[in-house]
Amino acid sequence: MRPAHECYIQLSFLTFTNQTVAEPIGRVPYNRKLYEAMNSFMKFLFRGRRPTFQLRCLNVFPTHIIRLPEGVKFNIRELKTCGRVPAVLKIMSSVLNESCFPIKHINQHYLDDLDDPFVKDAEELTFTRLAKSANLFEILQNLPFLKVNFLSRYRKYDTEELITFIKNILENDDTVVAPNGQFKAMQISYRTYIEKMGPESVEAAYVLKIEVV
Which InterPro entries match (predicted)? Predict the structure, then answer.
């Protein structure tokens, strides 16, 4: 029995700033398996292009299923993931160009991954989530990275805590100076989401930025 309408699988593009409007890029008839449609889209996107792509940031979600044409490689500056960094790198290693290691910026969620060699070799580290019970200031002061960004969605720290933290940074040479002899930069953001009437939400961010130069 044929459907009353023509059915298609469509590839669309969503921008980070406007995720409500999808721009169609291509489509194929819905008469094949999904993985075949994905392969068709990947060939459409990458065929005839240079084998290595330069990316500022590669954002990988644990639920992503990526089927790239053979030979495609990425040079990246930042790896961003809400999954475990070792697991993500194990999966993505075949499509990352050797020249992008060590990755300069790791944006991740798990403190346990700080001991991973790929994470430790980064110049910049971003925490986009941290457990409530974690001692933020003790952790930040002992990180070896040149630049540290911390985004907290769980709790806010009072003025006295922040002032004490800043004083400890400025008074402790081992904290201020990274292992390579350069000065550290730190940024702490507290992000809260305020629900409005309807599906939209407003993000309010409070930023403390510390740069010792």
Answer: DUF3557
**Cα distance between residue 113 and residue 29, in whole Å:** 43
Q: Give the residue from 43, 123, 122 showing the smallest Cα distance to 85.
A: 122
- Which amino acid belongs to residue 94? S
pTM over 0.85: no
Closest CA to 80 of 120, 122, 109: 109
Secondary structure (3-state) at 165: helix
Tokens representing residue 76 in the block:
């990246």
Cβ-proximal residues to 173 (8 Å cutoff; 6+ apart), any chain: none
Q: Where are the beta strands (DSSP E) in 89-157?
A: 105-108, 124-127, 147-152
In this predicted structure, the answer to whether residue 213 has a pLDDT above a threshold of 60 is: no
Instruction: Pinpoint the alpha helices (H) of the chain.
Output: 34-46, 85-92, 117-120, 136-141, 159-171, 173-176
- What mean pLDDT is predicted for residues 26-35? 84
99-103, 121-125, 165-169, 201-205: least confident range: 201-205
